[in-house]
Amino acid sequence: MNTKKDVVIIGGGPIGIACALECKKRNLDYLVLEKGALVNSLYNYPLNMTFFSTSDKLEIGGIPFITKHPKPHRDDALEYYRRVATSYELKIHLYEKVSSVKKNEDTFLVTTEKAKYTTLNIVIATGFYDIPNLLKVPGEELPKVQHYFKEAHPFVMQKTAVVGASNSSVDAALEIWQKGGEVTMIVRGPSIGERVKYWVKPNIENRIEEGSIQAYFNSEIKEIKPHELVIQTPEGEKILENDFVVALTGYQPNLSFLRSLGIQLSEDGKYLPQYNQDTMETNVPGIYLAGVICGGMETHKWFIENSRIHSELIAKAIAKKLQ
């Protein structure tokens, strides 16, 4: 089956859904392709996660996001985006992974495991949550090492090392400790991250100060063994008893996919993709970027609240081009 579209949107997260809403408003023939569940990245967030943003900052398409919590929880967000997608009958194909994109003169052939689609334009809104930044140390392949945190229960009464000092690392460390795990934090820098949620930062700092959570700053893991952890600290090498490692060292976008499409990336280590800020169109005519993917390796620069505007810019540009 080969169906021609005005727009194929790759990625069914909040920004992909926002792009679908804007395309629908302009009567564009669009389709969203998502390799997993609806808003798959949010679905894979920790069960008890609380957003930094207020609900109004997470709204898309001008559709109110109502919640009883001052800061929305993961379940609040899932319910909101689920209702947006279903109530507006958005054209979204879930569990349909894109395997290749090929350009043929002025159209693109998008191939998935289920179908082929010919489209005049492509929007990439794939986020950055699928590829973890690896520690690249011996033993990282052991089954006790995890790069995602869902809930604390598996770590109860276990010696768990949490790597990193970001929001995700701090949330995991606190939740594991609260549920009865013995937590040690391994932090490359000199302190807890400055971008940690303001209502959480004092809590983790107090737990460290009182000794409830052990923290090694300016330290790195050198080797992971089945029952031990070798770390390098300012005081020298230390060997810790260890049952689990939760390495929350960040994630990165699928840069190889962008390169395969011919999108130019900066060579300064940030790998910023080239695009027009007024239209979000890349150096490849007909391919647009939306959301976190625009920041390359600087994944902290774009969020739902400041990239919602991308959807309107893209839909407006495509509609104008198709007039």
Give the helix/strand layout.
Elements: E1 2-10, H1 14-25, E2 30-33, H2 40-43, H3 74-87, E3 92-93, E4 98-104, E5 107-112, E6 116-124, E7 131-132, E8 145-146, E9 159-163, H4 167-178, E10 182-186, H5 201-210, E11 214-216, E12 220-224, E13 228-233, E14 236-241, E15 244-247, E16 251-252, H6 255-260, E17 287-289, H7 304-307, H8 309-322
Parallel strand pairs: 1-2, 1-6, 2-3, 6-17, 8-15, 9-10, 9-15, 10-11
Antiparallel strand pairs: 4-5, 5-6, 7-16, 12-13, 13-14
Describe the protein in words.
The protein contains 8 helices and 17 strands. The longest helix is centred in the first third of the chain and has 14 residues. Strand 10, helix 5 and strand 11 form a beta-alpha-beta unit. The strands form 4 sheets. Strands 1, 2, 3, 4, 5, 6 and 17 form a 7-stranded mixed beta sheet that branches. Strands 8-15-9-10-11 form a 5-stranded parallel beta sheet, covered by helices on one side. Strands 12-13-14 form a 3-stranded antiparallel beta sheet, with no helix packed on it. Helix 1 packs parallel to helix 8. The chain folds into 2 domains: 202 residues, FAD/NAD(P)-binding domain (3-Layer(bba) Sandwich); 114 residues, FAD/NAD(P)-binding domain (3-Layer(bba) Sandwich). 37% of the residues are buried. The mean pLDDT is 95. The protein is elongated, with a radius of gyration of 21 Å. By secondary structure, the protein is an alpha/beta fold.
